[in-house]
Structure formats: structure tokens, C-alpha cells
Amino acid sequence: MLTDLYNDKILKLASNISRNGRLDKFDFSSVAVSKLCGSKVIVDIKINNNSISDFSHIVKACALGQAASSVMADKIIGSGFNELKKLHITMQKMLKEDGPPPKGKWSDLMVLEPVKDYKGRHASVMLTFDAVVDCINQFELIEVDRLSRVEV
Predict the structure, then answer these.
(1) pLDDT in tens, 82-118
(2) Residues contacting 107, CB < 8 A, separation 6+
(3) Measured between alpha carbons, how far is 102 from 116 in angstroms, rounded to an integer?
(4) Is there a contact between 106 and 99 (Cβ–Cβ < 8 Å)?
(5) What is this structure's pTM?
(6) What DSSP element (H or E) covers 62?
């Protein structure tokens, strides 16, 4: 039922999004848009030692996308690339393959587990994760290019 989706915990997360706006100086930025519902997330990150040192976002999404972005904003600082890539995979598996929800510092995301039954809502939940991983991929491509030039 839709009441499972838009429960008090999700609505509370959605109404308490931190780190709104754009960073004055960022290393990478990404825009993720859901073609199905039109939800959109813009993410800016700063990187230090292969981890996230600063983060901001603009979230124009339903309460589900807002809740996911809210957890991301609260937990991402200090997170490493591998951790965030694994989180992306865990969220995809939770939604699409009935996998377990994230654990540890990301356990607040378990509130989004009922979304698995509403495929039309998956994209909105995944926007923030897609954008963060895209930023990481941008960084890694530049690093590979830089290292290949050094080796030549």
C-alpha cells in the first residue's frame, strides 16, 4: 500500500534534507534525472584521499527520492569510493532483487525497502546514488588518464 511507502519515517527524512544547494568550489558534479517521473538530483562533491570531503545537492524529487538524498547528505562525508559503490549496488539489489537493506551507518535506508514493490518509484530513490557514483567515475577516469600520461 502507498501508506507503507510514504510512512512517517520517510516523510521525516524528506523534510529534513541537509546540505542543500551548490558548493562554491567542487571537484565533480553530476545530474541524475528519472525519465519516468521527472525527478532530478544535482550533486556536487569534493574529494580528498579517495573519500568525500564535502557534498551538496539540489533535490527535486518525490518524498522517496528526498528521503534517500537526506540519508546520503547525512552520511556521505568521510565515505570512501568503494563504500559508496557497494552502497549503490546494495540499494539496486534491495529494490530490484529483494536483497537486504544497507547496514551500519547506512541502515537508515532500510526505511525505503517497501519501494521494491513499486518499480515506478525505483528510479527516484536511486537518483542520489547514481549521481554520487557518476562523480566517483569521473574522478577515476581522470586519474586513469593522468596515470597513463605519467607512465608514457
Answers:
(1) 999 999 999 999 999 999 999 999 999 999 999 999 9
(2) 101
(3) 14
(4) no
(5) 0.92
(6) none
